[in-house]
Amino acid sequence: MQRHTPTGRIARDPDPTASAAESRPDFQQAAAAVAAVISGRHGVAITTGDVGDDFKGDLDGAEIVIASGSDAETTVFLLVHLFGHTVQWNTSEHWRRIGLAASPGTSPEWLAELETYEREACRYGQALLHDAGIPGLDQWLADYAASDAAYLRHFYASGTRAEFFGFWRSGQPLLEPLPIPPFTPRRWRKRSLGIVV
Predict the structure, then answer these.
(1) pTM to 2 decimals?
(2) Does 135 map to a domain?
(3) Which of 32, 46, 58, 94 lies in disulfide reach of 65, CB 3.0 to 4.6 Å?
């Protein structure tokens, strides 16, 4: 059984039959495997750098930027999630407009649209994990994605940022992988609107 601590690190209940190494996913290995598929198979550049104090990642349609100093677990989520948005931006004008919205709305309709946009990105991310041959992270991604959606709903409804892992709920419904369509990465513009944690 796993749970997230207030710092966001995965904590697991002790299992006398498993060593510490077996009980925690190797997020560094997962990040490397995912990055290889993103850049090698799909031609999307990955860099680390400054994305602003309030942000942990950014994308522009051709490149994914991960904030310097991000831990391996956060990096894996950002890679799969921002890759999903990269697919959306390069295959759907509608989703690209949602992602590039300079002034997001707070109506129930707009928030529902945002939730669909975010969930679809994570479904592409789920397919990416499978394509990269990474087992055992399906429940983790479902829980992380649900927490991200709850965090964003709170942010847009209230205009205030809260502690991300305060929204964590384990055991969320698993995501159904969405097959990744062929696409050509295209640079649209940098997005630093604070809608990706």
Answers:
(1) 0.84
(2) yes
(3) 58
